[in-house]
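ARCHIVE CARD
CATEGORY: sequence design from structure
SOURCE FIELD: tokenized fold
FIELD CONTENT:
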């Protein structure tokens, strides 16, 4: 019977699996961990660039997910809800440690830059293309030189491939600001590591 339940759980959507967890099916939590462990590790490592911090944050994220399972509401995608938890934990950890890099990238730090940007899909940074154009270590070094607001949106969009709407919800930021930060982050990465994507080859 237990094996049957696990098979059935594996065929469900993320949101349905979470609903099962809310109803007391403990195996549902194992499914969530299996589906998101690598994705969260990938995101948090590129955000923190520290293996130990990354491992701690992944574990803490899943702990929060389990403890807060009853607060999840299906109006949000489970992935969005989990990334929000992970990002907030990362920010909290680095604020406490005072280790978060805060480099001013603009002449006018008061510029909210919240106007809409139309970004063509041809300039979206895809993970496979990154590996072809440059080494992972070069990317990680460049990412860590971005200010934390830019780094989080570029990782969520171009590496995790979330939508603008999901990123706006996760970061609690206006859509225009999200697009602006992504655009500026890409420009700064290009200046740091060169033309890693040739739009004509995409």
């Amino acid at each position: 019977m237990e094996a049957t339940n696990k098979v059935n759980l594996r065929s469900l959507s993320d949101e349905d699996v979470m609903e099962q967890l809310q109803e007391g099916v403990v195996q549902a939590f194992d499914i969530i961990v299996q589906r998101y462990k690598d994705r969260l590790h990938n995101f948090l490592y590129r955000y923190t660039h520290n293996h130990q911090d990354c491992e701690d944050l992944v574990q803490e994220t899943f702990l929060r997910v389990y403890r807060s399972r009853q607060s999840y509401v299906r109006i949000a995608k489970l992935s969005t809800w989990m990334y929000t938890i992970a990002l907030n934990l990362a920010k909290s950890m680095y604020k406490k440690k005072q280790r978060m890099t805060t480099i001013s990238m603009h002449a006018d730090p008061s510029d909210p830059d919240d106007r809409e940007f139309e970004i063509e899909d041809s300039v979206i940074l895809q993970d496979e293309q990154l590996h072809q154009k440059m080494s992972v270590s070069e990317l990680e070094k460049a990412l860590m030189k971005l200010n934390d607001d830019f780094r989080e949106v570029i990782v969520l969009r171009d590496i995790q491939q979330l939508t603008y709407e999901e990123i706006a919800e996760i970061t609690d930021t206006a859509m225009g600001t999200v697009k602006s930060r992504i655009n500026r982050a890409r420009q700064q990465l290009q200046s740091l590591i060169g033309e890693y994507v040739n739009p004509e080859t995409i």
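CARD ANNOTATION: Residues 99-134, 195-202 have pLDDT under 50 and may be disordered. The radius of gyration is 18 Å.
SHELF: design records, drawer C
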